[in-house]
Amino acid sequence: MSLIYKNLTTVKDPLLYLKPIQHHNIKNGSIVRIKTEEGLRTGQVLSVSHEVVVIQVIEGTFGIGVGTDETEITFLDETYLVGVSREMIGRRFNGMGLPIDGGAPILPEEMRRIEGEPINPTRRAYPRDVIQTGISLFDGLNTLIRGQKLPIFTGQGLPHNKLIAQIVNNAKVRTNEPFVTIFCGIGILAESALYFQNKFEERGTTRLISFINLASDPTIERLIVPKIALTTAEFLAFKHDMHVLIILSDMTSYAEALREVSNIKGEIPARKGFPGYMYSDLASIYERAGRIRGKKGSITQIPVVTMPNDDISHPIPDLTGYITEGQIVLSREFHQKGIFPPIYPLASLSRLMKDAIGEGSTREDHSDVASQLYAAYNNFLQIKELESIIGSDSITLVDKKYLKFGELFENYFTNQGETERSFEETLNIAWNILGEIGKGELVRIKKEYIKKYFVEKRSN
Amino acid sequence: MNENLKIIGKISSINGSVIKVKGFSHQSVGDMVNISEELNITGEIIKIIDNIAVIQCYEETLGLKLNAIVTNLQYPLSMELGPGLLNSIYDGIQRPLETIAEITGDFISGGLKINALDRKKKWKFIPTVKKGTVVSRGDIIGYVQEFSLHHEIMVPKGVSGTIIEISEGNFNILDTICSIKNKNKIKNYDQKLLSKWPIRIPRPYHKRLMPDRPLITGTRVFDLLFPVAIGGVVAVPGGFGTGKTVVQHSLAKFADADVIVYIGCGERGNEMADLLNSFPKLVDPKNNRPLMERTIMIANTSNMPVSAREASIFSGITMAEYFRDMGKDVLLLADSTSRWAEALRELSGRLEEMPTEGGYPAYLATRLANFYERAGLIEIVGSPKRIGSITIIGAVSPGGGDFSEPVTTNTKRFVKAFWALDPNLAYARHYPSVNWNNSYSLYDNLAEFWEENIHKGWEEYRKAINYILSREGELENIAKLIGPENLPPDQQLILYTANLIKEGFLIQNGFNDNDRYSSPQKTMKLISLFLKYYNESLSLIRQNVPFFRFKELEVINSIRRARLDVSNDNLDELDLLDLMLSRDLLQIHRQYAELL
Ligand SMILES: Nc1ncnc2c1ncn2[C@@H]1O[C@H](COP(=O)(O)OP(=O)(O)OP(=O)(O)O)[C@@H](O)[C@H]1O
Ligand SMILES: [Mg+2]
Q: Is B201 a domain residue?
């Protein structure tokens, strides 16, 4: 049954308000078709009461006439569904899931609600298999795990796009299992979209799906596109046993769209104008990562979050950090020093790596080496600070070795440029630079590994 | 229920998880309702304005229709209490998640009404009173063995009289186990194993007692520096990634309590999977049984309905009170109370209530008090006379890590210990990242119990560590200016010892087999090593032995690593280290004997 209205009273872009007829059983969340002079638009019921129905119009409300017969609003009985199919692999779509690569339309295998349903916590399998990104600061120190959500916290003008392209092109599960990457662009610049497209094509896009919502596309689409991408991911991972890596770039655009709509609805904001339910809303996206017991596939998320003013305590990165399992933080200082990728080790953390690395997955010495690198780099920073105060003449010989180590850590281990490294290569480089500080300092590494892997330096 | 007696109304408004219903002939705040005959969503009346019921829905309202029929069930949101609670995992309103998975598979869909406790399972009931005994509210009439716990069966509120029949046997939770001739009532009362209690009403107790026994957590920094008493209340605030969940998990595993209620309140699904994964592999040292057998878990993750999240901490505390009333020591862990407060804020926003600071409703403090005040060391109603307790440890997740936000400041009013986690320590991988300057514990009356029943020296060691850490704080800045080598030797010793204590004692690796749990004996022996090092070195330094000699001691490296190398069963090794330390110090003493 569809209900048709012509009595639109209020328009506050992107929302429409009208008074329903009392006995019309309008469905919360249902789809609305809006016929205007220029054509058909789509909306969704946000809230409904006998006094007023609030409709969010995806394409925006510009040009929708009030008090005219031309504007016709039809309430459908259904909620928002999207078609998903394995045919989508290798294709490019817009923010509403329509092909934009000139190819044929997709024949859906299934129609699904984009909101998804929560995974039953008792059905989750604890993630413990790795993904190799080819980047030492990930693989060596902050390993990405299948089923994890690990965001990249970045700032305006930092080279996160380049980093993302590199990850998309090089990420591997290191088994023969099917592995698909979904790139979901949320409010990205047309030029960035082009950059990604070119970069991706360098390696071939046969295992890639792109959903692109451009900065110039409607705001509401930004709230929808990640859900379409995740619905597709769930279909591929849990119905067709694929490992899916999904990049959400940029969640800051998503959160800002959320704020925009919330403010127009007149809701009471919590911090910095963002709605009080932003934590739950972001969680409904991030928590769609994971593994399920008895299923072969997995969903791994790398959301990109641009920190306004590089402020990690801003509500968007803050709430994200409260939901995700760690974070990778890019550093402006490293970037200015010419280090790529400019990943700052102290603030970065992969919370799920501890149970997943080691013998049989990466290498037996991985955990010890990571912890030693971390400690040594931390030590280096303190020595550097001391050196800047008391001068390099007054520091000890051991301290000097740490200064050498730190320099190599930044300029060699971290600064890998566009090269791709396997886990083994990353760990070997780590041993190489740990050689600078000498065996005696490696208190976090088991003796047997030192025996097996230690690289003696002539200078010692 | 007779169809004609049904109290029904119709939906007049839907706004997120809050709906309004017109037309109930009969209604009270707290009544449960069934929403829509098609979707069967569970809800609770939270307000009544001009005869219109305002209802919070415990499930997603997407797809719900205006004018849909709502039935008032006329009972409050209650917990099912009885055998079968342990080793369970529930959502925020006590629906068993395992059973949900059997029905709807890997994902949770709405509209499910499932009993919390198994109706079919038989339990062996063993009476502890005889026919003819006069009983009243709270009296224990018998027990059921639930794993290794005596699950006491108690006479409910409102019943008192003479037992006219009671027998041992195998019963399911709805079978009558005992008949009581109720005073002033015509009908006999048929007692069952199952009882119910509304979650918003605290279970009554006889008397509140002053907590004076420590709750041993197995985490050194808490047991020694910031202790919690059995029946106490603690907040663990900290920004993201500072280690709140690891603290909560390690307490759930190792704290010395009879029953653990773990509430995953608006947090991660993978963390619940982690717990569910590791619990069966860990055993309770007291009885060698899997830890899950003393545990009730509530998992209402961040992507599950927000109203059920609001209810979850009251669901948890109600189950905790039930076990407390049996005379058990219950530990309730809530991760995170901030997510609960946010649920409250979200609902309040939908109700268009006047917000206060941070958008939270004015009643935030009252609700927090309603929760925390249900902790305590309690003398229970009924016979035999018994004492039970609930200890609450609540994680707080302040936005931006800023402790001046409303949830943290309000929580501070109701807790007596505050374990402040510090992002700078976490960045330096100093876990647990408990900041020793901002944290406190007002449970300072535990010394007597420690000295008499656990280990001597507790008070003295605390003072000594506090002295060293606070001196270090004062000296740190000077050291940075002039370089630590240029400080007087006794001050260098302070800095050096403080670092040893941090690295070898305060830091505790939550994932290392030897380190994650530190028995009180290990904790005390370990700290005594560091203090001995400090005291004896200091006295030699005062006699002009140069400081560098004490840095060179070989045994120091072993002492520093002892927390990782020495297991709780091998504390002799710490005694050995103690001997080696004495020997080395003696050697220095001898070398400088002529000088001295
Ligand atoms: N005692 C510990 N030993 C070793 N590592 C720890 C310890 N405590 C915390 N960590 C590390 O810190 C990470 C984050 O800890 P945790 O998940 O407890 O943080 P949190 O405060 O609960 O964060 P959030 O608020 O985001 O939930 C862990 O995954 C682990 O890597
Ligand atoms: Mg946590």
A: no
Disruptive mutation site among B22, B57, B106, B408 for chain A (greatest number of A CBs within 10 Å): B106
φ, ψ at A459 (rounded to 5°): -65, -20
State which ligand 1 atom lies nearest to the alpha carbon of A322: 26
CATH classification number, A4-79, choose in 3.30.70.1070, 1.10.3210.10, 2.40.10.170, 3.40.50.720 = 2.40.10.170
Query: Is the CATH number of domain A82-356 3.40.50.300?
Result: no
Rounded to whole angstroms, the Cα distance separating B372 from B391 reads 9
B237 and B382 assigned to the same domain: yes
Measure A290 CA to nearest chain B CA, in Å: 7
- B408 CB less than 6 Å from ligand 1? no
Instruction: Give every residue of chain B whose pLDDT is below 50, as ranges.
Output: 1
Which numbered atom of ligand 1 lies nearest the CA of B507? Answer: 1
Q: What is the pLDDT of residues B29-62, one digit of tens each?
A: 999 999 999 999 999 999 999 999 999 999 989 9
Instruction: Name the nearest CA neighbour of B170 among B132, B137, B133, B142.
Output: B142
- On whether any CB of chain B is under 8 Å from the CB of A115, the answer is yes
Residue B539 lies in a domain: yes
How does DSSP assign B360-424, residue by residue?
-BTTHHHHHHHHHTT-EEEEPSSSS--EEEEEEEEEE--GGG-TTSHHHHHHHTT-SEE--B-HH
Say whether both B31 and B143 belong to one domain: no
Round to whole Å and give the CA distance between B519 and B530.
Answer: 17
Give this prediction's pTM.
Answer: 0.95
- CA-CA distance, B276 to A280, in Å (whole number)? 23
Q: Which of A79, A118, A346 sits opposite B107 (nearest CB)?
A: A118
Cα–ligand 2 centroid distance for B333 (angstroms): 12
Here the CATH number for the domain that contains residue B496 is 1.10.1140.10
Question: Is the CB of B508 inside a 6 Å radius of any atom of ligand 1?
Answer: yes
User: From the CB of B427, is ligand 1 less than 6 Å away?
Assistant: no
B535 φ/ψ angles, rounded to the nearest 5 degrees: -60, -45
Mutate which of A279, A311, A349 to disrupt the B interface (most B C-beta within 10 Å)? A279
CA of B543 to the centre of ligand 1 (A): 45
Rounded distance between C-alpha atoms, residue A126 and residue B318, angstroms: 30
Chain A residues within an 8 Å CB radius of B482: 390
Write phi, then psi, for A456 (nearest 5 degrees): -70, 135
> Is B585 among the domain residues?
yes
CB of B509 sitting under 6 A from ligand 1: yes
Distance CA B268, CA B399 (A): 17
Nearest atom in ligand 1 to A324's CA:
26
B92, B107 Cβ separation under 8 angstroms:
no
ipTM above 0.90, yes or no: yes
pLDDT in tens, chain A (460 residues): 678 898 888 999 889 999 999 999 999 999 999 998 888 999 999 999 999 999 999 988 888 888 888 889 999 988 889 999 999 999 999 999 999 999 999 999 999 999 999 999 999 999 999 999 999 999 999 999 999 999 999 999 999 999 999 999 999 999 999 999 999 999 999 999 999 999 999 888 889 999 999 999 999 999 999 999 999 999 999 999 999 999 999 999 999 999 999 999 888 888 899 998 999 999 999 999 999 999 999 999 999 999 999 999 999 999 999 999 999 999 999 999 999 999 999 999 999 999 899 999 999 999 999 999 999 999 999 899 888 887 888 788 888 999 999 999 999 999 999 999 999 999 999 999 999 998 888 988 888 999 999 988 765 4
Q: Do B483 and A394 touch (CB under 8 A)?
A: yes
Using most ligand atoms within 8 A of CB, pick from A351, A357, A371, A444 the residue to mutate for ligand 1. A351
Q: Do A229 and A244 touch, CB atoms closer than 8 A? A: no
B407, B442, B477 - which closes a domain = B442
